[in-house]
Every structure is written in structure tokens, then in C-alpha cells.
From TrEMBL:
It comes from Candidatus Magnetobacterium bavaricum. InterPro entries: DUF6272. This is Uncharacterized protein.
Length: 90
């Protein structure tokens, strides 16, 4: 089994939006996730947006279990988003 971890700074004002998007994709079954991925690809709205879009959906599709994540405040305007994905095979 493999683990992939990543992190990035985000605007503190984006915390709730990112939390809701990650919560949504981690709660989907594989078929729903596949449909959602296709929908995002077709719309083109999530490919170069403000985070928590197509890339996270793609990671969740490849992950063996729901993504683990956290969002921690750095200061009033900035937070740190960290993500861990578990993969059984590559």
C-alpha cells in the first residue's frame, strides 16, 4: 500500500468551500464519483479554478479509502490545506 500526501496554502475565506467540496467527493460511491468526474470534465468549470476541483476528484477515484484532509489557520487571511490519500496499488 502507498500513501500520497500534499499540502498548500489557501485563502482563509475559501476554507468552508473547500471543506464542502472534499466532503462531497469523499462521500460518493465509485459510480457517482465517476459520473461527477465526467460532468466536471465536460463543463470545464473545475479544471483551473480556485482549488478542490477536478484534481481532488481524480485523486479520490484512485484512492482505496476516503481522502484524509485538514485545514489549519496560519493567520487571519491564510490557511494550510493538507491531504493524504491511501492507494493499494499504483
Amino acid at each position: 500500500r502507498y500513501f500520497v500526501a500534499s499540502g498548500n496554502t489557501i485563502l482563509a475565506s475559501d476554507k468552508a468551500r473547500i471543506h464542502e467540496k472534499v466532503k462531497k467527493i469523499t462521500g460518493m460511491d465509485p459510480a457517482a464519483l465517476k459520473d461527477y468526474y465526467r460532468q466536471l470534465r465536460k463543463s470545464g468549470n473545475e479544471t483551473h479554478g480556485r482549488g478542490a476541483g477536478l484534481g481532488l476528484v481524480e485523486i479520490q477515484r484512485k484512492a482505496s479509502v476516503p481522502l484524509q484532509y485538514s485545514i489549519n489557520d496560519i493567520n487571519e487571511t491564510t490557511a494550510f490545506f493538507s491531504l493524504k490519500a491511501e492507494l493499494w496499488e499504483m
